[in-house]
Protein 1
Amino acid sequence: MPRSPQEPELNGALLIDKPAGPTSHDIVDIVRGLYRIQKVGHCGTLDPAATGLLILLLGRATKLSQKLTADDKVYEGTLQLGQTTDSYDAQGEITATAEVPVLDAAALNSAAEHFTGDLQQKPPMVSAVKKDGVPLYKLARKGKTVEREAKTVHIYSFNFNNYTPPVAAFRVHCSKGTYVRSLAHELGQKLDCGAHLSTLHRTRSGVFEVAKATRLEELVTLPDAELPGRVLSLLELTRLLKPE
């Protein structure tokens, strides 16, 4: 149910711990309805199956969108070896299977070192990136594959901390626009067995951490008086974003 209008108008950032299921735009719509505020935007899309930190900007804070979207991101997740999918994640159709070689975390980290630094990365065919105005996923549904323009991304670190065959747990620190599922796919190709992203959880974006975010399930049941207290004001944002 929509909340009563808040006074004064809310302008600032709201950190959400996104659950699996809804899209980033779904979260924007939910918060817009709760706050009855016209201008709500998000900084960095999370796929529906992904969880973790989603930064929403309210009111005049939407002017900071470009700056905040450009921040580096940190993710934790798992990938499954031995299976390749068309979307590079667990939501896609399996396109190939292969026997997984004998590996351990050290071997995975050795392979992951090849994917640090500047990389030329192409978006998956199953993605929202547009080709001649048409989202790639719509072309993929028709069985079409088109050439995608590669872009430069930067991987600061890519590490594995646990491996229980065939699932490996990792942490990656990367620049904006990085497709972590593409990273999982490419690692699988290097290991000659294929791989896809199983789970993904964003823990950090710039100076913001998921530990300080509000779970969506909690947000929608908060009393009206507590809602403003979850919003980082423009003054707080200015202090946080001030260069060292």
Protein 2
Amino acid sequence: MGGLAALARAAGHRVTGCDVGVYPPMSDQLRSLGIELIDGYDAGQKALKPDVYVVGNAVYRGQREDGNPKFPLIEAILDEGLPYTSGPQWLAENVLQGRHVLAVAGTHGKTTTTSMLAWILEHAGMNPGFLVGGVPMNFGVSARLGVGNHFVIEADEYDTAFFDKRSKFVHYRPRTAILNNLEFDHADIFDDLAAIEHQFHHLIRTVPASGRIVYNASELSLKRVLAKGCWSEEVSFGTGGDWQALGSQDEFQVLLHGASVGHVAWNLTGLHNQTNALAAMAAAHHAGVSPKLAGQALGLFQSVKRRMEVRGSAGGVTVYDDFAHHPTAIRTTLDGLRRKLDAQASRPGQPTGRVLAVFEPRSNTMKLGTMKAQLPWSLEAADVAFCHAGGLGWDAHEALAAMGSKAHVANNIEQLLQQVLSEARPGDHIVCMSNGGFGGMHAKLLDQLNANQSARVVSR
């Protein structure tokens, strides 16, 4: 929704937004664009008399415990017959119409792969528009209109709005669609994996015959989706696919049908990012970008804020911010860092750094406890794990019991902070994982680590 606001502002509209608990980097980006942010959903905001209310899927019909509406503004809009639409519908009608849309769908890696693809097209001089669920560091903004014919969009399978329960991506009508992976998620709106597969097939139905479906060859769930019917060109990537990688996670050859067509050397970690790169290159190829040029672009790719973003170092400890919240995403993130540190340790004189995982199960799916049994598996690459269990309806101690002394649980941010600080030592890498602001955990850790370091210097 923040990206949509930025696009509307760039198109010349006056834009005002309301939400609760807006946090960086999106809050900073919106204010820098001159977009007023109002805290809460008070019905008095109807006095602004906008041409249209663009409604996000975070609001819904319902009442608080005192009997008053949870979202008074929504009730006022409905009662008075004021004009409203959903974010994806507004985008489809006002931005995407008539453009070559490249959509990136999947349970994991959407934001990073979308950012890669947008940057490849930018590097090729195509000046694409884009909408990303994060802030790509190469651009510094999460969305822009662009002046070229191409528009790259992160295509989410979550529902559209309280009045449109279809997945958001069915509105985008892409000519090029990446299907990165597909696992069960969003237990608050989907009953099972089959229900999500059904929505993915709705997306496939919207791709024209001249379009391209770029899919992960190692995902059985995606093969089931395609087996339901596909009327476009199919191109695969990953293990057993048309596009493959040969080499290490930080430098590899790109193979197309077994022949080397490009080369990537970069600083990103994890085999998952290698796979993301293949998907982005295959999609860019459909837009006319050569694999060689795409590989050069990825060598200049700076990743995305909150995707293994180094927030700082203090006292010999490095602190990262990462958006991982699904067990598979947690595992791939930590595994990527573990592999990088192990590779560094193989060099003479380089010690092996420890990985400290600090996470909060904040998504609706994780709060429900649907995937709690997978947490020990997802944290295997961590030397020590710390879980913020405040607000959960399940027992985090029990869920992490298999990890023994490697796992710690805290009921609030301050307790969690002290647990991490008591364990941290020089050479450690602390990865903070959350899909929210995490109570400012990153800054608090760095501030205290710096204070501890200063205290040690003074004591000498």
